[in-house]
Amino acid sequence: MRSSPQRSAAKGATVTDEVDQGLSPEKAAMLHESINGLRERDPWASASITFIPLHKWGLITFFATVTVCAVLFPRGTATWSIGIMMAIYLFTLGDRVWLFTSGLSSRDMVVVSDEEALSVPDEDLPVYTILLPAYDEPNIVPDLLRGVGKLDYPRDKLDIKLLLEADDDSTVEAASASEATEYFEIVLVPAADPRTKPKACNYGLLDALGTIVTIYDAEDIPDPLQLRRVVVAFNRLPDHIACIQAKLVFYNDSQNLLTRWFTSEYDQWFGYILPGLMTLKAPIPLGGTSNHIKTKVLVDVGGWDPFNVTEDADLGFRLARLGFQTAVLDSVTFEEANSDPINWVRQRSRWYKGYMQTFFVHFRRPISTFKELGPLAFVRFVTLSIGMPVLTAINMVFWLLTLTWVLGQPGVMRSLFPPFTYFAALISLVIGNAAIIYMGVIVAREERKPQLGWSSLTAPLYWVLMAMAAIKAIVQLIFQPSYWEKTFHGLNEEDPGSHSDN
Fold it and tell me: Are 163 and 203 in contact (CB under 8 A)?
């Protein structure tokens, strides 16, 4: 029998600890389960520790070997390093373009018309649980409740839980003062580490009444018929479809250049990449919101990992390993695009860190993961999880090498790199950024958003921001793996309510 991964400093509350802090035994047990349930039942699936000994010694050996080679054979090591990075870069980028073109040619989404959605009698609709996690966002609560309040679904079959941290006084006060309290429940999540969204969702899941569970973020404005469309889609699809992911679209795409870049990226991801994954029957890393999951399946797989800061992507891969698939639904949830560069980097570095956490978790037993996913899906798991953070970090390397060539090849660089390595870096940089511009322009045309076409021409600058976020994520993965960097919402200049009826 394999030994379980050892526990680390990523500590969770114990029942005894929480009873001592004044919680009732029932609440203490719920808190313990929401934090420790997954890692106690399946330690190999938990990101409570980042690197198991296999990974630690593998990485130490790798970097030690590279260091020795760099000292003894600096020129050869530099050349081989650039060659390997270029191969990884082009392969990962090529796979993304392939997924994009697959999604573009097939647009293989589940479509449920308004008539079909409304044709199901109210008495035949299942009870639906909606989890609304929020933290330190009292100004967002009215918009959140306004958007969710317009869902076309019988009130007596909605189990809406507003998940708030017990010590978040301002948000609790704002929610309690809302006029919509008659149709949602305020759930106070006891304060305990890790302070993450998945921990709060696990806590809410323990009392879920619905046969389907979904999550909406604080700034979300879902399609009013989305829940009905999901019910029809699940009835139509085979049983192994355990999750349905709706499309996420930004409502403030014209706020500034950053929101245009972000919107183009989201339109590519949810409109083309995910449908491409669905067409190829590949594992789909879920978005953090508007994923609708069968409650029984979600409970059986252990819920969300409270120690993974991109818990949605991890859950998507976990479902795929157990033989379940995710479908993409042509139903829109409007969100706010991050308009502040610093706030954006904080958010993106958390996403990248979580993707890398997910890779190391599922790569603890790579042979088992390979067998469960299959060869092609396994390769795609690698490119989607650790491939994108590495790709964006490598892009910065190619930028810097090309820049040193343009600025006159400093002596130390000229001694390390033969001239052809500069040309290789330049070719990779040109191909990579040309592909990103191409996908952005195509999306602008297909989505009929001409304002995104012009901003796509400057997308390489967006990749500089992405590279900064990726490098930050790599550093945090080592020193603060489960630290959840808060993303602030409500920075948009447009009234989100104007989209709530679309």
Answer: yes
